[in-house]
MurNAc alpha-1-phosphate uridylyltransferase
Amino acid sequence: MPINPRPIKNAMVLAAGLGTRLRPITDTMPKPLVPIADKPMIDYVLDLLDGAGVETVAVNVHHFADSMEAHLAKRSRPRIVISDERAALMNSGGGLAKGLKLLPEGPVLVMNADLFWVGEKPGSPSNLERLASFFDPQTMDMALLCVRNENTTGHSGKLDFSLDAQGRLSRYKDGMENPVVYAGAIAMHSRLFADAPEDAFNLNIYFDRAIANNRLFGIVLEGHWLTVGTPEAIGEAENTIRRFEAGA
């Protein structure tokens, strides 16, 4: 797949959640700053975006917002703009809608601050570059990065979508072919949220709307996907990272 000659330059990182399943660690710090192999989770995400050519990232903050802002201020790339949710959490959809207003209208990548991957092949297009190139706003509302369950660490095993031969996604039901897990990365055009509610709502509303219109598509992640939902999962993630760093 060719790399888009004009890569997506803007992104939104959803980072405002409370991280309740990671307590007691998140009683003293926000989940995106929890270190995995001596590196805060959100820095894995921001490094992936930077490597894909993203220049400006909106990041929403709520839980330990001051700590988040102080950490993000240390980065020079990508440029960070803060979407402040101190007053009220906006959920995934509301947070995205609010953050998009801080970015120029156009194509945008969206990532979760606590979901990332390792094991991309050097010299090949990255997963985010592939996703940006795959996204076609004429035929798609959103393009999702997905992963096969066997290429995950820390995941519950829940299957989210079925991916057909054309790359179209539908909600997974038992027995469906080509099941995949949503990997927490989206390519979309910001105008999709022009009519978004002003209050909190879940991003799944837009996933289901796109499915109903046959406009939700996806590609499969190359490498290995990590999710850290509990304190016990930290060690599993670190072992996986070390294994890939050693060339496994």
Q: What stands out?
A: Helices lie at 41-51, 65-72, 91-100, 127-134, 204-212, 231-245.
